Amino acid sequence: MADRNELKSKAEGIFREVLEVPSLALRDDMVAQDVENWDSLNHITLVISLEESFGVKFSTREVMGWKKRWRNAGYLDYQGNLKTVKMSITEEDIRKQLSQTILPEDDVVVVYSGLWMFGSLLGLAIKDIPDVLLNIFLDFLGHERTLLLPTYSYAYTSSRVYDLKRSRAETGVLPAHALSRKDFTRTMSPLNSYAVSGSRTDEILAVDDRTLWGDGSLMGWLDRVGARICVLGEPWHMACTHFHRAEERLRVPYRYFKQFPGKMYDDGKYVKDVSPIMYVRPLNVAMDRDYTRVAPTMREKNFILSSNDEDFPLESALAPDIVTSCEELLRANPLEYVGNPDDITEWIERGKMQEMDSMKPDERVEI
User: Fold this and answer.
1) Are 59 and 35 in contact (CB under 8 A)?
2) What is the helix (H) or strand (E) element at residue 153, kind and residue range?
3) If you ran DSSP here, which 8-state letter would residue 195 be given?
4) What CA–CA distance (Å, rounded) separates 259 from 92?
5) Which of 151, 253, 260, 312 has the highest CB neighbour count under 10 A?
6) Alpha carbon distance 170, 44 (integer Å)
7) Residue 70 confidence (pLDDT) above 50
8) pLDDT of residue 40
């Protein structure tokens, strides 16, 4: 049996080749965010390459732990006695899980996704995975319902340029690929855009976001129509941004309103000036965000529908139920989402007003 150093060296070679980082050195505490090229599709390639090289199969649960922390991959445990796992997830499997988590009356569906967790089990060429999944979702929902995928472009905060066609979606491979398809249209919010397909697309495009998470925002619209929010391949606290809606509604003390004036383009052609308003977190002190208690609160209220196949991890809840759960936690403790409350309390008391006063005139806004 190979020793630790031999196994690690072999795995390291695979990582370097797939991620195109010749000098990469594996560490026990390495996470995906440490390597620029470690996105969802490259993660799937890593899983498949390691499985083929070492003659093993990873379960979805193992893959999930692996991306969080490399040492959890179990690369020192290739002893031929790993549990047998499903070789592939079929379209029939996916449709079954969709029927358990998206109800017939759900007219609008939002999907937050992380393909890295289960993509290697789909039995598809890696380049085909996004298209196949999108086609399954659209076919399942039909023409009368509407699908949204978040295509947020956080780079806008520094560049102040938003291009409907060219601004990269920073929310994963699936929504980024949706933007390349003719059956999806991108909304016009520079910071919180969505790729939309379905019968209510025009209605969604007409929503005028004054603030990102307020009652007049697209998130507010999702609440009013009772949209079904799904998380696929990632836990709620890592994937879902609908939690922020409660923060703005209740005006949590660790945020403040800031305007981001800039310009909108469509494939390089100027469209208009824009000024999205965001309820931002502190700039001058690091805030440890912690949304881990939201999902347990929703489970206690039976708000969550779950798939029964851990290899295709899909859960859902109605948008207004998510906000209800979040607001309950924040009313009990306004710093519920803060992992370092002492630091943030000190900033609120001593640094918040100074930070707000330092904004440029065109960034200041009264709400």
Assistant:
1) no
2) none
3) E
4) 46
5) 151
6) 18
7) no
8) 66
Instruction: Determine which of 45-49, 69-73, 79-83 has the lowest per-residue pLDDT on average.
Output: 79-83
Q: How many domains does the chain have?
A: 2
* Residues 68, 107 within the same domain: no
Tell me, yes or no, whether 143 and 51 share the same domain.
no
Residues 25, 134, single domain; the answer is no
Instruction: Find how far residue 23's CA is from the centre of its chain.
Output: 29
Show the tokens assigned to 198: 């379905």
pTM to 2 decimal places: 0.81
Residue with tokens 């052609």: 269
Q: How big is the chain by its Cα radius of gyration, in Å?
A: 22
Q: What is d(CA 313, CA 332) in angstroms, rounded to the nearest whole number? A: 31
List the alpha helices (DSSP H) in the chain. 4-19, 40-54, 60-68, 91-101, 129-141, 156-159, 173-178, 201-205, 218-224, 236-239, 244-249, 294-300, 319-332, 341-350, 352-357
**Domain span holding position 60:** 4-73
Taking CA 212 as the corner, what is the angle to CA 211 and CA 214, rounded to the nearest 5 degrees? 65
**Is residue 212 within 8 Å of residue 279, measured between CB atoms?**
yes
- Position 57 scores a pLDDT of 64
Longest distance between any two alpha carbons in the chain, whole Å: 67
